[in-house]
Amino acid sequence: FKKFYSGLPSGNITQKLLNKYSIGISTVLLERKIFKRLSFNKKYNIIGDFDLFIKLSTKFKIGSIDKPLTFYRIHKSNFSNKRVDIHYNELKNWINVNEKKLLKNKFKLGNVKIFLIKLKIKSVFKSFKKYLTK
To answer: Rounded to 10 degrees, what is the CA torsion of 54, 58, 60, 62?
Structure first.
């Protein structure tokens, strides 16, 4: 297997997550008391983990182990790949809700906004492809 990412961030990692989100949800361990304070936002079907871990990273230092704990297969049938439109809308909403607070705390959202643009382009191409195959 090809190593996907090395040099995992630890400590105060909010900006690093905003620059490149690299947390595999299946590898996360949380104390129950933390999860009771902050949990997944039920309105997000695709970016719920991103939203939760950004919030956690603004309140807690994060530790990481640079060892493979799981394997994750990325394929065309992944929900986030199939429903780019939902992914785009959720991320756009997330930016609208969180941007002011994050900017106030001196975090930069440039890479998140670039990713949003990439999702929009991917969504347009998927729509165009469906149109051509009809």
So the answer is: 50
Tell me how far apart the alpha carbons of residues 45 and 27 are, in angstroms, rounded to a whole number: 19
Task: Decide: 18 and 112 in contact? Cβ < 8 Å.
Answer: yes
**CA 21 – CA 8 distance, rounded (Å):** 11
Residues near 77 by Cβ (< 8 Å), separated by ≥ 6? none
**pLDDT 10s digits, 20-77:** 998 888 888 888 888 888 889 999 999 999 999 999 999 999 988 877 778 767 666 6
For residues 108 and 85, give the distance between their C-alpha atoms in angstroms, rounded to a whole number: 24
3-state secondary structure of 62: strand
Question: pTM here?
Answer: 0.83
